[in-house]
Amino acid sequence: MKRMFLLGIVSGFFSGLFPKAPGTVGSIVCVALWWVLVNYLGCISPFCFFLCVTTFGFAATFLFMKFFNGENSKDPQFIVIDEWIGVSIPLCFVVPDSLIQVLAALILFRIFDISKPWLIKKAEQLPGAAGIIADDFLGGIAAALIVYLLTIFVPNFAIAEEQTWKHEFITDQNTPQIHGMFAIEVLLNGKKQIYRVDPTFKKSSPLKIGSSNYSFPAWSSDGGKLAYVSDESGQKKIYITDWLGSEETLLNQNNDLAEDAPSWSADNKKIVYTAGENGKNEIYMTDLSDKSLTQISQFNSRVLTPRFSHDSSRIAYSTDRFWPGWDICIWNINGRIETCPLTGKNSFSRPFWSADDEKLIFSNGQQDEMELGLIKLKENISLHIPANIGRKYDASFIKDDKFIIYLLKSNNQNYKVMLYDINQKKHFPILQTSQEIQHLSWVDHTTLELEAKHAKDQKPSQN
Fold this sequence. Notes:
463 residues, alpha+beta, five-stranded antiparallel beta sheet, four-stranded antiparallel beta sheet, 9 helices, elongated
């Protein structure tokens, strides 16, 4: 019984018993298991996978060779756990959902493992379990080095092959007609990218994609400008681009802090955001007319998602100053007074104002157990919005507060853009995807309207 248990481990769940090319078969089985656990289920990181395979593999190989196969015998072909250990090393340096990078890691490892150049060949001559594993370990390091260099010096390899956002529109005849579009952050190949989506015409197009992270899109109220966060300079900074994503300017030239979570004032003259370092940040505001920067808060804590009220007199945000839990507070800009209408252990986050500035929509809960809520500020009444099972987040009032648009992560790991009709109390799916989405920003203008305005602006004036 003990022999079968150890044999199952050292043979890579018996993949090493395959009659032809057991090393290659074992490596393929390892990569397949890695793909399921790391990429599909997401239940373990590549490095943890490597640690587990190495720890159990070395122990099982040592015990098997000591008690059942002779400590100093040569490397039996059916022992392929060494291939598992070796191939798991370059897999620590790939983008998990990039098939090209994963295959490159597998092929490069097998090349080094089969050819065994110089030091790798010498390592194979070590006695017992050390010799069985050492050559594959060095082969894995060599393959990892090549993979790492490819990600640096070969742009197409770094970006990987899957550059399109896979999604589908799922509206039907019962879905209310809404006029407008949204920008959304999509996780592609381990990088955050920004897409523009027009549900009216069921169109989507990339706004900001590439080898850097582009996150937290925020439309100006007229749809002509988009603020977003990018780390292309090595630090998270806020940029402003036009609605086509073709022009960009840096929001602040002289701010050394990492910036995040921009939000426009209703008149598009100011942007509020967070900035900080060492795990703490404050609320800042930049006046676009003269690029003057003002620090709004001095909380010495973490602050998330500040949002201007429509009259620009208040800012709603989440803070962890009163831990446990995140709280939603409101800062009165003129009076410099803070009130916190939502506090407690439940963690309240991502507030968004109604058009009349009398209500806030928000999420409460943690991780995948997040629900939607609404608070009437004057009455201090908080209401729960019943919805489908899953994580509900990034909710916004749209269309004069008749609807709420939000994101839903269901239990089967699918993501949906949802529309909630406040009067009918019904939820309607708009779009679904298997890729992670967040930070939806809505604007009451369609791409067709903006294209027409752009064409008009480009048309030379006639005298």
